[in-house]
Amino acid sequence: VKGSQKCELNCRAIGYRFYVRQAETVIDGTPCEPNGTAICVAGQCKSIGCDDYLGSDKVIDKCGICGGDNTACKVVSGVFKHTLTNLGYHKIVEIPEGATKINITEMSKSNNYLALRSRSGRSIINGNWAIDRPGRYEGGGTMFTYRRPNEISSTAGESFLADGPTNEVLDVYMIHQQPNPGIHYEYIIPGDNVISPQLIAHRRPGEPLNGQLGMPESTSHEDEDLHRETDILTGQAAGTFPVIQPGRFPSHQPENQVPAMQPPRQNREHNWKQVGKTECTTTCGKGSQYPIFHCVNRITHEEVPEGYCDSSTKPIPEEEACNLFPCPAFWDIGEWSECSKTCGLGMQHRQILCRQIYANRTLTVQQYRCQHLEKPDTTSTCQLKICSEWQIRTEWTSCSVPCGVGQRTRDVKCVSNLGDVVDDEECNMKLRPNDIENCDMGPCAKSWFLTEWSDRCSAECGDGIRTRSVLCMTNHVSSLPLEGCGNNRPADTTPCNNGPCAGKVEWFAGGWTQCSTECGSGTQQREVICVRKTEGNFDVLNPYECSYMEKPPSQQSCYLKPCGSKWFHTEWSTCSKSCEGGFRVREVRCLSDDMAASTQCDPQLKPEEKEPCNTQDCVPEIDENCKDKYYNCNVVVQARLCVYTYYKTACCASCTRVANRQPGFLGRR
């Protein structure tokens, strides 16, 4: 509806294209539009500011301040375009604490993946060489939306989006597998804490950090060989993601620290005892747990405060594997593909994989491992919108000829379900109504039919003749000669003279080639050049010299021998009845190539000489003043609105016609 009607109560009948106003105003507080913030008040659409005042024009600025002027924060953005060589994880940028409106986006689709990790060592998205599904992931005090567009139809790259603010520093990585298409990053930080994106200073941008994100599975002696690099900017370990194991502490103090004063040696009445283990980190698929040590009395084994035991002798908790049995397999459901049709009923597909988790990694396994679960459907029907349909906008025009067979046209348009004219491709072309058809205005009077005089004289110079065709015809479409035009046949020749022959510039035509077909009608070719005729000789000239004369044809039709007899027929006669079934006839003859009657035609191929016509019901005469004022009155009939006086008048012809077919259809209201 129009903007001025947004606060009216308008309803559209399901399956129809018209709507009816049920009330002049909706209830106060009703939204003006489905996704807008403005509301209707006393029939008028009023805006609401971010301060929740009606009519206020205040909006939230990019810093998140209602009515702000965008000066309380700073936008930090850039593009990571470095060329990478090694496969694996490469750090792109770090997101500082307090960042908002975070947007990390691949500039085009590639086989690379984005990854996100917190400074505390926790992988948030795509860690440990495990690719997560698109979705929402919590990290750094905010919720990140991970998007990976459709792999078939979209050319956009994947992205991380978050509103923030973050409560810790986050690092963004790229899992490099093919040339870097460029990564655009952007976030907002408070104005009094403006910093720039920090990259690792002591290495080239994009250098792989040991080729992985997160700690791989390894035995205890491999843990000691972990390679780390020191971040000069932050003083923290950069390189592979260090996994900080609970309860594991360094066995010696850093060299730059002053050793603390040793406490007095405790007596040997108390010692450390393992009293249990921590809960396993996972319920299946290989987790980890650590022994728990408490200080106890050596004799009674009663627990006492840890101060009674020597802290330097407390055993270091060692990680132990637990719950080694694999987790139950499950169906990993992919996203639906795009609908196979832009309108109407179509199909969409999705990928279903049998997956199993082991050692914090999700693996694809054989489908029989998921046989205990019902497999989800891989295909489904879909419908994006109702298809457009054909609509006849005008009546037939008058016939193009006053007699004989001509053509008439009408306007046919493809109309959407909202009533707008759209491209024909949006409608089913197989169902398109004809917008042109033949029309028979009856036979023309018998008379001589003439062509124009030929433009070329039979003699290239001197005296010659020009010709024209003369035929007696009763139908301007037929070419069969008929009797009855009288004896005053117009002349088919007239004298002509192209002037003296000596020294004249003219076109010269060579001999014709062989006919292109062995029987029936074909074509012949010849060469045409511009020459000047002199005494006993010809000079070839530039074609421009002869351009003022009509150039003879370089191609003509030819006929070598007849190919056989064929069926000929006249046009259909006028239908014997205008409605309720009549018939029309035509004459059918078998003619040879010289248009003589023949009996050599195939009887199986003989065209019909009589056929039914105008089988539609007769429509009673309608008052001349009873006409349809609108082209879509068929919709009014379908919706049964003819019972209302307004529609009965506006669509008089259509309503009267349906009333005659269905007595009692029209009533009074």
From TrEMBL:
Listed GO MF terms: metalloendopeptidase activity
Gene Ontology biological-process annotations: extracellular matrix organization; proteolysis
Location in or out of the cell: Secreted, Extracellular space, Extracellular matrix
GO cellular component: extracellular matrix
Domain PLAC as annotated: residue spans: 622-659
Keyword Secreted listed: yes
Keywords: Disulfide bond, Extracellular matrix, Repeat, Secreted, Signal
The UniProt record lists the keyword Secreted: yes
Short name of any one Pfam family annotated for the protein: ADAMTS_CR_3
PROSITE patterns membership: PLAC, TSP1
Protein name: THSD4 protein
The species this protein was found in: Erythrocercus mccallii
High-level lineage: Eukaryota, Metazoa, Chordata, Craniata, Vertebrata
